[in-house]
Amino acid sequence: MISKCDFLPFGKLVAVAFLSIACICNAAASNDALAPKSKVEDALALPLHTATIATVSLQQSLLFYRDALGLAVKGPITLTDKQTAQQRQLWQLPKDLNWQTYHLFRKGVPEAINIQLLVLDKAMPSIHDSWDSTELGPFSLGFPNTDTIALDKTIRDTGFGALNALESYPIPRPDGSTYQIDETIFNGPDFLHGVAITRGGGMAQLGPIDGNGLGGPAYSAQIIEDSEQHLKFYTDVLGLEIRSDREFKSAGDKGAMNLPNGTVFRFAIVYSKGATTGHMLFVDFRNLKPKRPKNSPSLPNLGLGMWTYPVTDIKQVITNAKQFGSDIVQMPIDVNSPIYGKASVATLRAPNGFLIEVFEAK
């Protein structure tokens, strides 16, 4: 990805920006604005490992993530009383709430983000009130693949809609040639979006793919406000780095997000040091007042309520969190997780109240 996004028409910027492909013109690292200049050895938090979704709609979730997007599923996973009690403690779940745990993952693609699906035994408030792309909070999970046109049909045939029609458009390379982008932002269960994205013209996809041409989740996005403070949390507490930080004018009702015409937003792409996937996208609207959902963007509310990161030094993360003034939900405890194994685990909150889990493997 290179920095010459001035070559792109504003009408296409929102789709390109929001899917972390700000202007990918060739594979050479010197021309790739998102290529790591840092080293994995210097990382404190590693790439996003797990996205935890709370739901009461197991069948809809399996229809979307397993049947349409091709993820493998394990579950329900049997937990010991100790594991359940520790999860309740770490995630601040009510004593009268119970759940079943399912693990959704991309078979053969260990770099893909895991989904930890908590199927609750009773309804809880929803993080989002609708699929409106101007609502604050967790927005999406991104799924790179080799044929979004086919995937678009598959997902729509299963009964899921999208924010807009599939969009296809050329992106110029420095030599004047172009390659095609196909992408759709689907309306998934629990008012969470799933983004299908294909890069043509011989370009590598946005994350590793399996033998069926399906990949991801490769990234996750949020709509935020007060982005200076918010991004400072991810860089100062977790040691992540901002690879790209731009201001874009949306494609309006012609774009993938289907925003009001003329919308301007800050768009920041955040990676673990040295990483090439497992990143986060943050959108902060400049000339539009975002919609504020009634409920907190956190477990146990329904939807995407937690990101989980492996860390190389959990004590340093806690020190950073105290210096930043973060809300530390739970100091480190020893846990045997069904998703990431034996680890020292802690939880804290981002500035918007979103739950962050960190673990240092044993």
Automatic annotation (TrEMBL):
Listed InterPro entries: Glyas_Bleomycin-R_OHBP_Dase (IPR029068)
Does this entry carry the keyword Iron?
A: no
| Superkingdom as given in the UniProt entry | Bacteria
Q: Which GO terms describe its molecular function?
A: dioxygenase activity
Signal sequence span is: 1-27
Kindly indicate whether the keyword Signal belongs to this entry: yes
Q: Which UniProt keywords apply?
A: Dioxygenase, Oxidoreductase, Signal
Write down what this protein is called: Extradiol dioxygenase
Annotated organism of origin: Thalassotalea algicola
